[in-house]
Amino acid sequence: MRKVHMRGRGPHLPPLDQIVQYEFEPGYVVFTMPCPKRLRVQVGGEILADTVNALLLYESDHLPAYYFPLADLRMELLTASPTTTKCPFKGVASYLNFAADGRQVTDLVWRYANPMLQCPPIGDYASFIWNKVDHWFEEDEEIFVHARDPFRRVDCLPSSRRVRIEVDGVVVAESWRAVFLFETGLPTRYYLPLDDVRREYLDQSRFETRCPYKGLAQYYNLDVGGTQLKDKVWYYTEPVHEAARIKGLVAFPNEFVEIFVDGVRQERPITTFSHGYAQISPR
């Protein structure tokens, strides 16, 4: 636990003052924060969870996860599964299956009925396997991929700096009216108006990805001479409200093209996108 005299050091995050560290893994943290948003989980035509009293569980090396009070789950639609798993930081998890209207989903829900000592008190809460759920909602907005990390920020800032995109020495886009997207821990992305792109190099793709912080991304293929980049140029026609400024703008992958900002070549980052994991949104 962070001592009182240390609370002025490091990020101002009050939850960190309550963390109990694991003796066998110093520095590993598991903590929860109240989530006052209305959260709903839908499978088929059934709303399985509807709450304003969820917890957001944050754990080292994991994506954040929503935990729902058992009282706000449709327990009559859930039955015990024989499946169990063991987490060294939370304890033994048991699972629940879903069945309704001819639809069955195995091991949809998990919970730690008796969490270990250092774990937050989540015994009366349960969570859902994200990709086994049909729809997740924060208030009335559908969310995708995973719970939004409260420690990740997305800033979309208009800029008059000159942005030039090149492929094999060929200029494919140039703009003085880009929007720079700064996302915590990730490379800067440069979103350009389509009018500032040489569209003869673009070919519409049917590929799509989803991002919890920006929404549904659609793609173009990029073909410049002998260089073809399939499903690598993306845009959002209806981004979520935090990213409204990039609506309709296109972004090129820093990992595969040359990007110059005010004449300075930007270093190519190494990300999951650069390793070819096309199913992962280029965040």
Describe this structure in words.
This protein has no helices and 22 strands. A hairpin with a 2-residue loop joins strand 18 and strand 19 (227-235). It has a seven-stranded antiparallel β-sheet with strand order 1-4-5-9-8-7-6, with no helix packed on it. Strands 12-15-16-20-19-18-17 form a seven-stranded antiparallel β-sheet, with no helix packed on it. The chain has two domains: 4-143, Beta Complex (Metal Binding Protein, Guanine Nucleotide Exchange Factor, Chain A); 154-275, Domain of unknown function (DUF427) (Metal Binding Protein, Guanine Nucleotide Exchange Factor, Chain A), CATH 2.170.150. With 283 residues, it is mainly beta. The chain is elongated, with a radius of gyration of 22 Å. The model is unreliable at 277-281 (pLDDT under 50).
